[in-house]
């Protein structure tokens, strides 16, 4: 396998992480809505954790995007 093929394969695998981050964000909000509907009184106290989970999932997606862009345009 030559270097260009390995670079493109690595960028494609890193791009999968972007889609998985979107699934993670969906899971965070789904869990929050499920718990808020079960116990509405505790929803306000859990909202901070919702934003922390959202930010963590988005951070992983952004890191995967940066790795993909670095592999495509900088490496090699």
Please, could you describe this protein's structure?
The chain has 76 residues and is an all-alpha fold. It has one domain (3-73): F1FO ATP Synthase (Up-down Bundle). It is 88% helix and 0% strand. It has helices at 3-38, 43-73. The chain starts with a helix and ends with a helix.
Oligomer type: single chain
Q: So, CATH architecture?
A: Up-down Bundle
CATH topology name: F1FO ATP Synthase
Radius of gyration: 17 Å
- Principal-axis shape equals rod-shaped
What structural class is derived from the secondary structure elements?
mainly alpha
Estimate the mean pLDDT confidence: 91
Query: How large is the share of residues in beta strands?
Result: under 5%
Sequence of secondary-structure elements = HH
Fourth CATH level, the homologous superfamily? F1F0 ATP synthase subunit C
Q: List low-confidence stretches.
A: none
Biggest β-sheet, characterized? none
Number of strands: 0
Number of domains: 1
CATH class: Mainly Alpha
Provide the helix percentage: over 70%
Distance between the termini: 14 Å
Give the helix/strand layout.
Elements: H1 3-38, H2 43-73
In short:
It contains two helices and no strands. The protein is mostly helical and 76 residues long.
Structural key phrases:
rod-shaped; 88% helix; F1FO ATP Synthase; 76 residues; mainly alpha
